[in-house]
Prior knowledge:
Layout: H1 3-12, E1 18-24, H2 34-45, E2 49-56, H3 60-72, E3 78-82, H4 93-97, E4 103-104, H5 106-120, E5 130-134, E6 137-142, H6 146-169
Parallel strand pairs: 1-2, 1-3, 3-6
Antiparallel strand pairs: 4-5, 5-6
Helix pairs in contact: 1-6, 2-6, 5-6
Amino acid sequence: MSYNEHQQAANEQQQPLRCAVITISDTRTVETDKSGALIQQLLTDAGHQISSYQIVPDEPDQLAEAVHTAITSRNCEVILTSGGTGIARRDATIEAIEPLLDKHLPGFGELFRMLSYEEIGAGAMLSRAIAGISGRTLIFCMPGSSNAVKLAMEKLILPELAHLVWELIRQ
């Protein structure tokens, strides 16, 4: 099958996907978490379900545990995180989640940084955004800014989400 045929088949069989949303922050609350709210809104607008939402501190062990729990709960096909992907000392999202991945999707980070570069210039290199697969769960790690989340969700994640999940479960 060609790429277009794969995407069409995935879209024809699309069911609402169950998505876990995790914000990584020492300072945000449910009331101030604009990026987490935006992820949830964009997902539900696209017809998907939010299976869980939580804010986890920038503590690698707590984040790894939250992601592992979401993976093993069998209550979600997709985990989307925001925050902790930069280069500051407390930014440990990548270090916490990479060991949980069976496969990496390097194109996500590469494309995200390319699109970010078009918007903000050389500062895009500060992002370590990644995506990958753990078992049959798709994981996206995005920066914490609302603009970055909007870019990643609208340009990369939502247009391919059904196709990506279909590829994971079809065999």
